[in-house]
Amino acid sequence: MKEPKRYLVTSALPYANGPQHFGHLAGAYIPADIYVRYLRMMGEDVLFICGSDEHGAAITIQAKKEGITPQTIIDKYHPLNKECFRKIGISFDIYHRTSEKLHHETSSDYFKTLYDKGVFIEKESEQLFDEKFQQFLADRYIKGTCPKCANEDAYGDQCEKCGSDLSPTELINPVSTLSGETPILKTTKHWYLPMDKYEGVIREWIDKAQASEKWKKHVLGQCLSWLDQGLHARSMTRDLDWGVKVPLEGADGKVLYVWLDAPIGYISATKALIPDQWETYWKDDETKLVHFIGKDNIVFHCIIFPILLMAHGEYVLPVNVPANQFMNLEGNKMSTSRNYAVWLYEYLKEFPGQEDVLRYALTANMPENKDSDFSWKDFQARNNNELVGIFGNLVNRVIVLTHKYFGGTIPDIPTEAEQAVLEQAEEVYAALQAFPHELDAAIHRYEFRNALNEVINLARVGNKFLTDTEPWKLFKVDADKTAKVLAISLELIARLAVYCEPFLPFTSARLKKMLLLDETAVQEVLAGSFRVKAGYQVGAKELLFSKIDDAQIQPQIDRLATIQQVLQAAKEDAASTPVESTSFEPLKPEITYEDFSKLDIRTGTITTAVKMKKANKLLQLTVDLGFEERTVVSGIAEHYTPEDIIGQQVLLLANLAPRKLRGVESQGMILMASDKRLHFVAPVDVIDNGQVIS
Ligand SMILES: [Zn+2]
Hints:
Layout: E1 6-11, H1 22-41, E2 46-52, H2 57-66, H3 70-87, E3 94-97, H4 101-116, E4 121-130, E5 135-136, E6 142-145, E7 154-155, E8 172-176, E9 184-193, H5 199-212, H6 217-229, E10 234-235, E11 237-239, E12 254-256, H7 258-273, H8 278-283, E13 287-292, H9 298-312, E14 318-320, E15 327-329, H10 344-350, H11 355-364, E16 372-374, H12 376-406, H13 415-424, H14 426-444, H15 448-469, H16 471-477, H17 479-499, H18 505-514, H19 519-527, H20 550-575, H21 593-597, E17 601-611, E18 619-624, E19 629-634, H22 642-645, E20 649-653, E21 659-661, E22 664-666, E23 669-670, E24 672-674, E25 678-680, E26 692-693
Parallel strand pairs: 1-2, 1-13, 2-3, 13-14, 15-16
Antiparallel strand pairs: 4-5, 4-9, 6-7, 6-8, 9-10, 11-12, 17-18, 17-20, 17-26, 18-19, 20-23, 21-22, 24-25
Helix pairs in contact: 2-3, 4-7, 6-9, 11-12, 12-15, 12-17, 13-17, 14-15, 15-17, 16-17, 17-18
Zinc ion binds next to loops.
């Protein structure tokens, strides 16, 4: 698009059912904040929109588990997250919430408009139903094995491992996440968005978007992979009691699908912020809409929401969706449910006054194009070597020397001395000239790591200038030249003070104060016309950064290591039960003979065995049952080689529903006993195959 008149920037709405961790910050909030702060600084018209997503299964499931209401949960986490974002300097223009009446009205009207336009298909179908909780199961209410990649923890709407779009009935071995029980099928009515009809226009739009601004490769790749798999109709309503009510007759007990209502949250938040002008931002072609999200939300922002916007017809579409990948923690995946994360609210408590250090470390390590890793050692090194060692050191030396030699005021400098130093400062002026352009280009390419690098490199240039000119020695022989060296250094630091604001807002404020830069001076810096001349005064020295020692980060490293050890031990326990101790698996709940008689266990003999490709634990076996042969995938490759087990008689659970593992359908399960390793279980004497165990 040509130069936009205004920007509308959104960050993913966090679920209000838990606190935010470093991964969230690095994914969708810090990059957006850098972008927005930079645009504001350049005088652009920009709105920065976010808020809590207070609907969705994650919240209701948690409420059911804890025996409290969803309202209690959102009333706890909405203010907590809002406050933490504020404290770390995320400069939202509004942090709204989807439980607000205005949002319910807005999303309800939006649905009604699409309904009246005949966008939806009304359809009755059989859906999974939890009898115990008397509830239909969709999205996160249902878990099972992904039919495409065999991930056992796939949800009813999406497999997070392979990114496939799923419907609950596609899951293998579906289990209700509410009761843990196998659901039944029951008929219900829903309104579907026929996404397949929009495949062509979505492709066209994505193509066209590339022409004005290249999307990140992984974003484009995920979109095309979805489109290539073919889009399907997706239900836009749910049988739930928590959410935005479906505004239609006969739709009692139904609410809007959370991925319909949540992105409309961006619209309702804008309405709440500027009731009279929100439409200009959402409906005028000269708005540039950019969504900042994590990679798990790509499909919702690049396909589903754009379809909803197109179907409505009055709204602008996003120009770019610069989604980030994931950030790992000390080499392991972050996990909210396992508490393997560093929580923002804890950081703010434990590292007071160090907000910018975190912003810096997360930006320097941002998972822009591939997954990255946060480690406390890296955090410490970035602070000590870069913020203290380069940035802080430069500022400190220049301010201290200006006070020491000139009482804090730059004196008159004779032209001759001025000229002599200017010749030495060529490198500095070249850097000062190139810097704003390099920075601008990086920001507009959403390359925030590079942009931050430009800032720290400018500080490096300043340090080199001091090392080359040695004002601390020069002063004894030529005070005039020394004054000029410091004046040039102060010009460079003024650039840093202004341009570090998007990345390090707290530091920028302190540094501006130290340099006594008022708004006029800031505008001069931005225009490139700022000069430090005779009479220029600096304020009192303030500490910008301080060293972080091992004692500060060791407890953090230890805490994460302990969690990893516990997780690892649990994993090993699951793999083998220890024999030496008196600890036995607790007995399972009592069952009736009838329950037992449902199991069809047969004798069989392994006739072939081969290792499965790319699966260290799995062997593919053929088991002869006498009356038929079965293919069975068994997780015993770490305990037995294929040669060892051909001819082995085994017991096979023969009426277990078949299940695909690594693309092979496993038709039954071989019974094993396990202590530290796995052992076959078989009749004491070899008997005929196909005999029933009872
Ligand atoms: Zn999958």
